[in-house]
Amino acid sequence: MIGKVRRGGRAAGLLAYLYGPGRANEHVNPHLVAGWRDPAELEPPLRPNGKHDLARLAALLKQPSAAIGEAERVWHCIARAAPQDRELTDAEWARVAREIMHRTGLAPHGQEAEAVRWVAVHHGDNHIHIVATLARQDGRRPRISNDFYRVREACRAMEDELELRRTAPGDRTAAARPTRGEREQAGRRGWDEVPREALHRRVAAAVAAAASPEDFLGRLAGEGVRFRLRRGDGGQIVGYAVALDHHRTAAGTLVWYGGGALAADLTWPKLCARWRRTPRDELREKVTAAARAACGEEDFFRRLAADGVLVRLRHSEINPGQVTGYAVSLPGRTPSAEPVWYAGGRLAGWLTLPRLRQRWAAGDRGWTQAEREALYGEAAEATSAAAARLRQDPASAADIAWATADVLRVAAAALGNPVLARAAEQYERAGRNAYGRIPSPSPEGVRLRAAARLLALAGIAGGRDTTLAGVALVGALASLVASVADLRQARQQAAQAAAARQAASELLTQVTVSAMPPGQAQPVRLRGDLPGQPDASIREPRHGW
């Protein structure tokens, strides 16, 4: 059972629609099943022409607002059973309506004479409409904060009581879905993708690959996404909104979406929480970016200095004028007053000065196949370590699960793999913490995000990378996602467990197909699939990446 909440300004107009024929004559036998008083007493009488006289009921609903001198405000909730459910009786729908009004606090049990006035209308199609005016009969204002989530709780309670099909909890782990109007607009204008979904995909990809707020905004601009920032009194960024050039109102102005309107974990504070880095990770990212952009040794060290990196050169003992290596540090990033230095080779094998000189001499700023495989190997190692930690220490689970979503998105782009891209979309809900909470940071989560940012620095592979290192990375990701699914299932987080299972099945299928000749690949069934969902756990093999 699902519930949807809307708000308006005229109970009379809404009642006229509910008791009318509907937009396509779909309303059959409209009548009250519940209300703040006996529904038989409140039921609108029939006029000689066969239509209902709604004037008295509309006036009764409006009275509390008029008594306190406020404009009429209407709370409207649609509660609908699943298509597979049986037809509920009027008495059962009345029970549903009362539970919703009780849990939202609009009309708690036993407060029929003091709370808001409301009625529930049933006109077929196994659903009801609850109409309430937002003014209590005792003169106080009702509280409606988080009413959508309280409605979700009431619907799930009724599913258990009435033995109906179970639905996912309203725990803010699902991404925001486009409205019906947004989908219809996209269809009319011939857009391939609804703007809200397109923005969600692009923003999620940008933040997964970004190392800082500046990097994130730069990646948004590179994706063709307009953005504007909201700043606090001190000038600090406290929020943002995004838009697409082609999505405008009738007046020609851009339609903006705040990060929270795309997904619960895309608000600005939650984005900043994803950019936690160790000094070593930050140095490796900065040194790698400078090495790729530099045209020579002097340019490389100049770029590091411009990026705020301290550089210390190592000279030859035989020839003091000859530079044989370097070390880097970040000012103010260590507890002690003395900086901690990292040699280039300690950051990554391809960042030693001799290796960089070879690259600059060859005039090659791209990534070699060996370097790409080294990146994939590091990412696979971080992924395997996170999976092991997840099984040993569930306290780190929330941050590891959240970071896994970033690795999946970036790995899909780095490997040029559409199966990974699909798995990343399917996994997203499994990675989010319930009710939008920011998980405590864990070393494994920080390491996973560092691996994702390094993969992003490598860019998209030329062609579709099917090397052994790439396959090993996908296999490690499949193991990690399956571990997340097990953990979510153990914690009775069914919707998140199902999302992780589906993503893991995609990844396991890809590993199977990559490791076997085309004629021998078989569908993959993931162990421990959720009961009642056999079809979601079988994937036909897809050859090639």
TrEMBL record:
Residue ranges with Basic and acidic residues bias: 179-189
Classification via InterPro entries: Endonuclease_MobA/VirD2
Pfam families on file: Relaxase
Domain (MobA/VirD2-like nuclease): residue spans on this chain: 71-163
Region listing for Disordered, in residue ranges: 166-189, 518-545
Domain of life of the source: Bacteria
Protein name (database record): Relaxase/mobilization nuclease domain-containing protein
